Amino acid sequence: MPGPVQSIERAAAILRLLAASQGRLGAGEIAGSLGLARGTAHGILRTLERVGFVERDDGSGKYQLGAALLHLGTSYLDVNELRSRAINWADALASRSGEAVRIGTLLEGRVLVVHHVFRPDDTLQAMDVGTLLPLHATALGKALLAHDANAAASIRDTVLEPYCRRTITEPRALARAATRVRESGWAAEVEELSIGEAGIAAPIRGHGGLVVGAIGISGAVERVCDASRVPEPRLVAFVRDAARAVSRDLGGSRW
Amino acid sequence: MTERYVMSIDQGTTSTRCILFDHGGRLVSVAQREHRQHFPKPGWVEHDPLEIWRNLERIAPEALAQAGATADQVVAVGIANQRETTVLWDRLTGVPVGRAIVWQDTRTAALVDELARAPGAAAVPGRSGLPLATYFSAPRVRWRLDHTPGLRERAERGEVLFGTMESWLIWNLSGGVDGGVHVTDVTNASRTLLMDLRTLAWDDDLLAFFGVPRAMLPEIRSSSETYGTARKVFPGVRIGAALGDQQAALFGQTCFAPGETKCTYGTGAFLLMNTGTAPVRSANGLLTTVGYKIGDEPAVYALEGSIAITGALVQWFRDGLGLITTAPEIETLARAVDDNGGCYIVPAFSGLFAPHWRGEARGVIVGLTSYITKHHLARAVLEATGWQTREVVDAMNRDSGLGLRELKADGGMTSDNLLMQIVADVLNVPVARPMVVETVSLGAAYAAGLAVGYWAGLEGLRRNWHRAARWVPAMDPGRRAAEYDNWRRAVERTFGWIRAEDGDPADR
């Protein structure tokens, strides 16, 4: 087992020192208090500043605890809150794409549908909020999987159930699909959960860029994809725009 | 071809919002800014009209920028506004006389009691469609005139203008002291107590009764016509619509046929039913109001049931009790239990509105036992909105003779799935949410777009309406009846709490 990482111990000490201080502290004061070389303290402080755990006052050049640290314990986003913040953009997405919209979050290795907007054709449709979908066979699931180490871990040792001929059941193929999602910023499913159905999804990011859910459309494969079974770029753009708009409202715009 | 849009301004109680809509009635961009709530004395609620105007100047360019659009892509601007909030301002300087007196403000309680005893009081409801209450604008105008030295004389000379928020914004948009247009629309005018509901004109008897000089009143226009051209904020853009926010929501929900009903769930809830081109008098505690009027077409009337506290009860649960940190968490908390555990909350925080109209009622929590947890209370909070809706729907069905078959719901609380299910359960009719929840803004945009020919007619707008969600009743009829009975017994316990001899503590 590897030993403790010295720089993390030092970073923790700096945070404790700042938490205990009445006002801001300069890099020199911090280095002096902790018996660190000035350059070492400076390097750690710059890194902490990058991740938002400390903030540097432009005038005095001194440091204090950062806002991101205060949000650390409360970064949990209630699913009903997520729905409430996303509802306008989900409506607009359904309206533009002409397809049903769902928002999903991760729940014990599956996708929990937390919001559902009907396909805007006024046909009879049933609300499926509360339904659980498989991570590996849905666009929503893959968007979550690609950006959440816990999600990826949660299904690493499970058997990937085949729903259709095209369902990804091979863990390494799923990992490759996740990498593609990370690179492209969106995920797709084409007849992987049910025959004739396709979907497109993109991650929703909250404070600090953390992925808190995914938003996507789903519908008949001939509407969602072109003749060569590739999702329509127009629809992909709508989904990504909606995901970005929700993320912006949740404070995840920088990512 | 360059995309063209309609801009909607929703001047609400807590914030002002600019929303850009496209031809499909789809929301393109939103910019919003809250304004300060002033509570100078218990029962007083004020807004600073200049702050609201400055907020509009700020957010309008933001909404355009978000959409990557310029003002010349906007075909018209429509305004929906908080109703009954009263602004007086100086025609020559544009400076407001004091702050705006907000619809929630009850400072006119004593004045209204006095007016109720004055000769002519009995004729007010018949003429205006409204009960004589602090809720409406006329007593506020009178209060301002009575309490500002020299104001009445200046108002009689036409130097001081009255308007609700849409008047104030249109006057400023169209130039302010430099040729600003002083108008209101029939829906807003129908909330003043000063307009004859049939002729749609200011009524001399009502003006005399309330002591409001005609010279200070705006011209009453339809809800959908070009009032003028903006010279500020959106230079060159036509100002094409104004509606009270609840009427705007009725319009945005495309409730164009008699019997069609919407309910907007916000701080309070407002149920409006289209009753066609003749006003229906209520025998069950509802208001008769103008729904909308498009250009020269006949006005369409509505019955309105107002519920004072719905979302505000959730806010109280969050801010007053601190049991949740955000409003939507109420659903998370309430879902932890299957029922209310026998507990009922009646939020008569400042009396009860429709259908009871009991100013002396105060809120109760009944049925408390040691079994009750915060989860049951959360459930009772949501159920309170459900049962209050039921009471108003029952009254509406009796007055109109039309049985409600489906409720079109909108507003922020429609994102609460449990609440929407509860409403469907207690009403025993399906509840549908439209694809655009922002129906207040959409209604103003529709009316403005119609005025300038961006949309051809009502049928086209109807085709824009799509169901985004639908909840169907799933409650056992026996349980529904038993719960309703419990709710009614809980409501009875709120009556008569404030006794005439002590008065409201807020008034002392």
TrEMBL record, chain A:
SUPFAM superfamilies: GAF domain-like (SSF55781), Winged helix' DNA-binding domain (SSF46785)
SMART domains per record: HTH_ICLR
Span of domain IclR-ED: 68-252
Record Pfam families: HTH_IclR, IclR_C
Claim: Transmembrane is one of the keywords in the record: no
Keyword rRNA-binding recorded: no
Coiled coil stretches, renumbered: none
Domain of life: Bacteria
Segments forming domain HTH iclR-type: 5-67
GO biological process, one term: glycerol metabolic process
Keywords, sorted A to Z: DNA-binding, Glycerol metabolism, Transcription, Transcription regulation
Single GO MF descriptor: DNA binding
Function: May be an activator protein for the gylABX operon.
Record protein name field: Glycerol operon regulatory protein
Species of provenance: Actinomadura litoris
Lineage: Bacteria, Bacillati, Actinomycetota, Actinomycetes, Streptosporangiales
Automatic annotation (TrEMBL), chain B:
Family annotation (PANTHER family): GLYCEROL KINASE (PTHR10196:SF69), SUGAR KINASE (PTHR10196)
Known regulation of activity: Inhibited by fructose 1,6-bisphosphate (FBP).
Residues binding glycerol, per UniProt: R83, E84, Y135, D245, Q246
Pathway(s) it belongs to: Polyol metabolism; glycerol degradation via glycerol kinase pathway; sn-glycerol 3-phosphate from glycerol: step 1/1
Domain (Carbohydrate kinase FGGY N-terminal) ranges: 5-252
GO biological process, alphabetically ordered: glycerol catabolic process; glycerol-3-phosphate metabolic process
Catalysis performed (reactions): glycerol + ATP = sn-glycerol 3-phosphate + ADP + H(+)
Binding site for sn-glycerol 3-phosphate: T13, R83, E84, Y135, D245
Chain residues that bind ATP: T13, T14, S15, T267, G311, Q315, G412
Protein name (Swiss-Prot/TrEMBL): Glycerol kinase
Residue ranges annotated for the Carbohydrate kinase FGGY C-terminal domain, each copy included: 262-451
InterPro entries in UniProt: ATPase_NBD, Carb_kinase_FGGY, Carb_kinase_FGGY_CS, FGGY_C, FGGY_N, Glycerol_kin
Alphabetical list of HAMAP family matching this protein: Glycerol_kin
Organism from which the protein derives: Actinomadura litoris
Molecular-function GO term, any one: ATP binding
Enzyme Commission number: 2.7.1.30
TM ranges: none
Highest taxon of the lineage: Bacteria
Family the UniProt entry places it in: Belongs to the FGGY kinase family.
